[in-house]
Amino acid sequence: MPETIYNLACGALLVCCGMCLYRIGLGPTAPDRAVAIDILGIVVVCFTALLSLRTGLSYYLNIGIAWAILSFVGTIALAKHLEGKGFDE
Amino acid sequence: MSDTIGAVMLAVGILFNLAGCLGMVRLPDVYNRLQAATKCVTLGTCLVLGAVAVLTAGQSAAIALRGALCIVFIVITSPTAAHALARGAHASGVKLWEGSVADAYAADGEPGAAREETE
Amino acid sequence: MMRRLALFLLCFAVWIVLVWPPRDETGALRLADLSAGALAALLAAAVMREFTFEKTRGLLDPRRYLWLAAYGVVLLFYIVKANFDVAYRVLHPAMPIRPGIVKVRTSLRSASAITALANSITLTPGTLTVEATADGWLYVHWIHVTTTDPEEAARHIVSRFEWFISRIFA
């Protein structure tokens, strides 16, 4: 795969990460930040897919699978915490 | 041929990712953000994984198989996480945007939330 | 017992995908990897009580997998439509949204069927499940509400999947 396509794709994903970080930083409420953290986790799986494409090594996708599952568990934990007690009381 | 298909899938997937993240920045309340982000980023990531599988199909079956497994995991977990977050946001007292037209869930007194606690 | 066997086979299949290829360069089976996978799958099947399949009867019925494949195609069509819909709303300068939470009724009862329905609703145009109660009410966040009547909303949101899911999880 040509170098430029890989660089462009990584640049676009970095813009995605930037927008997620903007939402994590500015909130304004706790659930907004939790949503952004969830989405950031999925964008990282995209990065691992691109890395395995660039290097031809399949175990980057194992990292991606593990990352997707761990990010899911983390999001569920955050959601349970939000449900348990309000942050805006 | 498969190179072209893979490159198109990669481009479309990343454009959907960008649209989803833009929606998360622009839309007014947490539920709308969750809608845009979940739908677009899920399909975008699945397209990127599919593109990787298509582009490497000639060299290694391992990448294609793992990509398919990853797609299955993401399609199952991402809507579930969105559902949990929406319920958590509602339970923690985040109001809907002022332009919203209805909130049947609050009107019915959040049924189901109490059931979870008694289990 | 059959439920645990099904869980064991599922775990072991996932493991084999994770360590693919099962043979090394010389063509010999990679016994260390495969036996570790068998051990882990056995452990999972022995420890997990809650997360086994509800019933194994009908797990090998080919008609259900046929319905599942057809449903996958239908769902893919709606997911792509949903993405263009959301992208249009986000990129439009005025953001044409009219959000709200409506409730709809479903006739499905089994836990896995309701989960599948709720996940499908989340991935399809303009809707996001907020809560599903045990007696069949779904609370759905709708990005462009056209009606708050449960019957009318159900025709828009639920009916197109219910038919397939009731056949897959029969």
In short:
The complex is a heterotrimer of chains A (89), B (119) and C (170). Chain B is mostly helical. Chain B is built from 5 helices and no strands.
Overview of the molecule:
The complex is a heterotrimer of chains A (89), B (119) and C (170). Chain A has 89 residues and is an all-alpha fold. Chain A has one domain (3-84). Chain A has helices at 3-26, 30-55, 59-84. In chain A, α1 packs antiparallel against α2 (30-55) and α2 packs antiparallel against α3 (59-84). With 119 residues, chain B is an all-alpha fold. Chain B has one domain (2-118). Chain B has helices at 2-26, 30-56, 61-91, 104-107, 113-118. Chain B starts with a helix and ends with a helix. Chain C is mostly helical. Chain C has two domains: 2-47, no CATH class; 62-168, no CATH class. In chain C, 56% of the residues lie in helices and 11% in strands. Chain C is built from six helices and three strands. Chain C has helices at 2-18, 31-47, 62-91, 111-123, 150-157, 159-168; strands at 100-105, 127-132, 137-142. A three-stranded antiparallel beta sheet of chain C has the order 1-3-2. In chain C, β2 (127-132) and β3 form a beta hairpin. In chain C, α1 (2-18) runs antiparallel to α2 and α3 (62-91) runs antiparallel to α6 (159-168). The chains are: A mainly alpha (89), B mainly alpha (119), C mainly alpha (170). Chains in contact: A-B, B-C.
Oligomerization state = heterotrimer
Number of separate domains of chain A: 1
Shape of chain C: elongated
The overall pLDDT average of chain C reads 80
Greatest interface and its participating residue counts: A-B, 50 and 53 residues
Instruction: Please trace the helix and strand order of chain A, writing H or E for each element.
Output: HHH
Helix coverage percent of residues of chain C? 55-70%
Largest beta-sheet characterization of chain A: none
The termini of chain C sit apart by: 22 Å
Number of helices of chain A: 3
